[in-house]
Write a structure and sequence with these properties.
Elements lengths: L2 H22 L11 H4 L3 H16 L2 H5 L2 E8 L9 E3 L1 H16 L13 E8 L2 E11 L2 E12 L2 E13 L5
Length: about 170
């Protein structure tokens, strides 16, 4: 193999490694992120998250369902929907209605839950936000939640929600 071809291959492999590292990096390079001041979550984002928790606590179906994008995907952590991925409004609304019925039971007055998100983290990228938090509302279970939000025309919507439950590790 000629020296020129070997050099070209090394250059191509190096370029592929750089591009691959960029694409697989969990944090976008600084140029792709907003300036630090702009990354701070705005009042509208916090109001959206507060409204989401309140609507879920109260099982306020119209408010809750309206927070999701029509094409959202949802991974559910437990029965009556596990293990499924619901894609699109028809699928996720049907699944969420089963969840709401199970939580409500025979009770008629909200709030039906008292969710207390812990270890809340918000990563903001222009009109996208990734929100992660934990729930400890079930004994021995840590509920892990990730919401991917998109802002269009100044309004936030959930485009993806991933929920999983894991055994809570014993305290040290």
């Amino acid at each position: 193999m000629s020296m020129r071809l070997r050099s070209h291959r090394r250059g191509t492999i190096g370029l592929l490694l750089v591009v691959g590292t960029f694409l697989l990096s969990p944090t976008p390079p600084a140029a792709a992120r907003e300036p630090a001041a702009a990354q701070e979550p705005d009042a509208g984002l916090h109001a959206f998250l507060d409204g989401f928790i309140r609507a879920f606590d109260d099982l306020d179906w119209p408010a809750f369902a309206g927070m999701f994008d029509d094409d959202a995907t949802v991974f559910y952590p437990s029965p009556p929907n596990a293990p499924i991925r619901a894609t699109g409004r028809r699928e996720f609304e049907s699944a969420w209605q089963r969840v709401f019925q199970g939580i409500r039971g025979t009770r008629t007055t909200p709030p039906f839950m008292n969710l207390q998100p812990e270890r809340l983290q918000i990563q903001r990228f222009t009109d996208l936000a990734i929100v992660t938090f934990e729930l400890h509302d079930l004994p021995g279970i840590t509920g892990r939640r990730t919401l991917v939000l998109q802002r269009r025309a100044g309004v936030w919507h959930i485009v993806h929600l991933h929920a999983s439950n894991a055994p809570t590790p014993p305290a040290p």
